[in-house]
Design goal:
Shape: globular
Number of strands: 21
Strand content: 15-25%
Bound molecules: flavin-adenine dinucleotide
Radius of gyration: 22 Å
Largest sheet: 8 strands, antiparallel
Distance between the termini: 38 Å
Oligomer: single chain
Number of helices: 13
Structural class: alpha+beta
Length: about 450
């Protein structure tokens, strides 16, 4: 990038120390966790921004975007860079807009809605909410590091989803404020159904500057690890707890052996050869859960009050997409898929996959409430990677037998499985980013010429 742009951005930010050009820093802030995927690693290694700008306010963002629009400079938003699909990796250089310093929790409203800036870390929001009797409805296992803006732009759900659904469900995201990429960037307010224009759009159609996030009344939680002799018995038990509304739970995760052998810091709680279930359950129901485990021939290998994110062990650190990280630490050839099973035929779907792929696919099940209120089995299976052809074969076979796959090995919104079929994210991009400068290359159905001809409709 021309040095005159860097100087100009320094002036616009009002503080040159928030315009970073050190090559190591720029490189670090241009990367995320795309290396989970051997396919994306090949595509994204070496992709960098030219400069990092760290705004403090929506007004500053408007100034930066006005300048970038006028000079056709791409802008890629960044929260904490924990995304898995190269979402925050700039494909065409330009400005990395690092929102980490916009980290103010503005209010926890009496009706249980948090109002905050995008750079607030989810863990800080959870801690703050609990002080007034609320907690997050759902959060990714990266809660300690990940930002609220990055979660609503690139995440989907996680711990808590078994009870409250994912981010898109049950009006969890109440409203969003976004800055547009236009000659005169506007500050737009999206609420109700209109939040879906912006949700999970990877920062391709606006920069989120304020979020209204619905919370849920806080519960005193306990953590519990349970071992079963077989995967079948563990799946039955986990499903029973996950689907019965009377159990107050935040997490029900089933890991078939040998996945628990990858969890080195808590290996003492993982008996050789057994399938484990990790629970977060209301403390008031812990004794009842333990009794139910014993009646089903399971063994409790660890249990205790959950004191918060400083818990040791922190069981959520092994669940959702943290499981893949532990597998990769054990053998770098592991990668993963993101699957949704049919609750009525899940066992048959699993056995078909096992028959075809043997130990190349290891099941790590997560239960989640869908938008219709039904708790269904999902999985982030750990997959032993050999070739791209073999991985694609597995994805195709899953789809053939009715297993939904949100493919984590593609670097665009449409390919990942959470693109809205009614095109609202694309329509918002056409309105808010006519030159296609926001995170370019990540919304592949967008062409700047398409703003007039052949435009899709809702
Ligand atoms: P980033 O990675 O910085 O950004 C994500 C996307 O949002 C990018 O496209 C970026 O451009 C865009 N963006 C960021 N801020 C803004 C903004 N203010 N305006 C517009 N666009 C913006 N995800 C889950 O959903 N559930 C899980 O349980 C989960 N577990 C994970 C476990 C591990 C070990 C890892 C590495 C990842 C996991 N993820 C999970 C993915 C990721 O951690 C989450 O999606 C997280 O919420 C992303 O937040 P972030 O702040 O790191 O976002």
């Amino acid at each position: 990038m021309d040095s005159k742009h860097i100087a100009a951005l320094g002036l616009l930010a009002g503080d040159p120390s928030r315009v970073l050009t050190n090559p190591q820093v720029v490189e670090q802030l241009s990367r995320d966790f795309y290396w989970y995927s051997p396919v994306l690693r090949k595509q994204l290694d070496g992709k960098l921004g030219d400069v990092v700008v760290q705004p403090l306010s929506a007004e500053e963002i408007q100034k930066v975007l006005r300048y970038c629009y006028g000079n056709s400079i791409p802008v890629t938003a960044r929260g904490a860079g924990t995304g898995n699909y190269g979402q925050a990796v700039p494909l065409e250089g330009g400005v990395v807009l690092d929102l980490a310093r916009m980290d103010r929790i503005e209010q926890i409203q009496p009706d249980g809605v948090a109002v905050c800036q995008p750079g607030v870390r989810l863990g800080d929001l959870e801690n703050e909410a609990r002080k007034s009797g609320w907690e997050l409805r759902c959060y990714p296992s990266t809660i300690i590091k990940a930002s609220v803006g990055g979660f609503v732009s690139g995440g989907s759900g996680g711990i808590g989803t078994v009870a409250h659904g994912g981010l898109r469900d049950f009006q969890t995201v109440r409203a969003l404020e976004v800055v547009t990429m236009e000659p005169e960037p506007r500050l737009m307010h999206h609420e109700g159904e209109a939040v879906h224009d912006i949700l999970h759009a990877w920062g391709t159609n606006g920069i989120i500057t304020r979020i209204w996030l619905a919370l849920t009344p806080a519960v005193e939680w306990s953590q519990c690890i349970v071992a079963f002799n077989t995967f079948a018995a563990a799946l039955d038990f986990g499903e029973k707890i996950a689907t019965a509304p009377a159990w107050i739970k935040r997490l029900v995760t089933v890991f078939e052996w040998p996945i628990p052998s990858f969890f080195t810091p808590i290996r003492q709680h993982a008996p050789e050869g057994k399938t484990l279930i990790f629970f977060m359950i209301a403390s008031s129901q812990l004794a009842e859960l333990e009794a139910a485990v014993r009646r089903s021939a399971g063994v409790v290998t660890h249990s205790g009050i959950y004191p918060g994110l400083n818990a040791r062990p922190l069981l959520s650190d092994y669940t959702w997409n943290h499981t893949t990280l532990w597998a990769m630490r054990s053998d770098g050839a592991y990668t993963y898929l993101q699957c949704g099973f049919n609750p009525d035929t899940v066992r048959d779907q699993i056995s078909q996959l096992r028959e075809r792929y043997g130990q190349e696919i290891l099941f790590h099940m997560e239960f989640m409430k869908n938008g219709e209120g039904r708790v269904v089995p999902g999985a982030i299976p750990v997959v032993y990677f050999t070739t791209e052809e073999r991985l694609n074969d597995m994805i195709e076979f899953c789809r053939k037998i009715g297993v939904f796959v949100a493919n984590p090995h593609v670097n665009n919104v449409e390919g990942g499985g959470r693109y809205r079929p009614d095109n609202v994210q694309l329509l918002a991009k056409m309105r808010y980013d006519p030159k296609g400068l926001l995170n370019p290359g990540k919304m592949v159905t967008f062409h700047s010429e398409s703003t007039t001809a052949g435009a899709p409709t809702k």
